[in-house]
Amino acid sequence: MTASRISLISPTGALGMGFLDQSLKRGILLKPDVIACDAGSTDSGPFYLGSATPKMSRRAILQDLRRLLLARDSLKVPLIIGSCGTSGVDYGVDWMREMTLEIAREEGLSIKLGRVYSEQNPELMAQAFQSGHIEALPGAPEINEQTILDCTHIVAMMGHEPIVHLLEEKCDVILCGRASDTALFSALPLMRGFLPGPVWHCAKTIECGAICSTSTQADGVYAEIDDNGFSVEPLALDASCTPLSLASHTLYENADPFLIREPCGMLDTQKANYHAVSERKTRVEGSVFRPERYTLKLEGATLSGFQTVSIGGVRDPYILARVDSWLEEMKVFFNERLKELTGKTFGQEVRLDISQYGRNAVMGEFEPNPEEMPHEIGLLFTITAPYQTLANDVARFVTHAASHWPIPEWDGFISGIAFPFSPPEIDRGPTYRFTLNHVLIPESPLSPFRFELENI
User: Are 320 and 185 within one domain?
Assistant: First the structure.
């Protein structure tokens, strides 16, 4: 028999983004049963997974984590952090553990800490692919075993089950590798027997903190789940959770606004009803969850080279009138010069991309007004090569030649591009690409993951 309701706090959309002190204080007064917070995403691209580098600074994470650990200590409820270190690689979990130990020592906290690691061995994943236990998601690139072996890091996105396992071990703080955002909020309610429809829909709604409210700043929300549905209100008193703000969040990061896939099944919100309880709170009923074949989404990134970039601006009306042909002409020269200096060819060992910001650079071929010409454009030159010194060498002759590339309307030597920096070449270092958009069919929901427990 379950309790009649369970309550949760989602303090912010991403650990390190911050939240209001008064909002957290109000959340503590509401006495939630669990605090959960996401700390990662693939939103910022493949670099953070490929290089195992956190996006948020240690300073920002430490500040948010300290406040949440102190809140957890005052409430004596679990604190769950997902996708540690942005990508959820093993290093990210260990990085967060170090900060947890530091804060506990400084604040005199006693904690039972649980860690769950989601990074996967590429060799084992290649074997799983060979045996048919890895399948492509719609739109996934073609891969083979070597594609998997070339990944610098691979993570499996865990569902709620590994978190439940650590909750059953009475952990006070749980640090997760890569995890479904919703699993962080679903774990305790599902463990306590609440219906999965309202649980998963509530988790989806509050996963990004106050983003599901009328507030546009990083902050939190409070949610309650019962046998028939759930309700959500912002922690900030000057914000509201409306039927529109809650319903619209099912559109976020989903191809379908009603059907949302989780490792253990599908959330169906087609018959969900949203109604305002007050000016600040909205209640949702009617969501259902259908169990399906268990799968774990895999994310993998591969080193694709090293980059040097240069940024310049063009305002000359004669150049803008013929900018496409002007750029194509200089590309021919660049290719000849590259062969002369290195024996390599653009499009093979070395890549050159020139983006016209202010003209079709954002949408590319999908731009509905491709012929419109502004009075100025920004040019982004991106050179990708097998090693950094080559990318830099190529960028040097590209920027120099491009800055003086002639047009028939001008006589003599011209300078057509204004570069804001000296030198104009900026080393970006290693660059990565996502190579996996696949699912793993595991032996069990826990088998791909590793667990560590310790008393602090």
Answer: no
Is there a single domain that holds both residue 243 and residue 325? no
Burial of 420 (0-12, 13-18, 19+ CB in 10 A): exposed
Q: By residue range, what is the domain housing residue 396?
A: 302-435
Name the residue among 184, 195, 196, 182 with its Cα closest to residue 254.
182
Closest CA to 65 of 186, 177, 175: 175
Cβ contacts of residue 363 below 8 Å, gap of 6+? none
Q: How many domains does the chain have?
A: 2
As a whole number of angstroms, the distance between CA 183 and CA 199 comes to 10
Sign of CA dihedral 354, 355, 359, 364: positive
Both tokens of 245, joined, read 């703000």
Q: Which two tokens stand for residue 75?
A: 């409430």
Series of mean pLDDT values for 10-residue runs along the chain (456 residues): 84 96 97 97 95 97 98 98 98 98 98 98 98 95 96 98 98 98 98 97 96 90 96 96 93 86 96 96 97 97 97 95 95 94 91 94 89 92 97 96 92 89 96 96 98 97
What is the spatial distance between Cα 83 and Cα 115, in angstroms, rounded to a whole number? 11
Query: Which backbone phi and psi does 107 adopt, to 5 degrees?
Result: -100, 0
- CA-nearest of 377, 418, 18, 34 to 218 is 18
| Whether residue 178 sits in one domain with residue 30 | yes
Amino acid at 326: W
Look up the CATH number of the domain holding residue 409.
Answer: 3.30.70
Q: How far is Cα 124 from Cα 47, in angstroms, rounded to an integer?
A: 23
Same domain flag for 57 and 112: yes
Residue whose entry in the numeric block shows the structure tokens 């998963």: 200
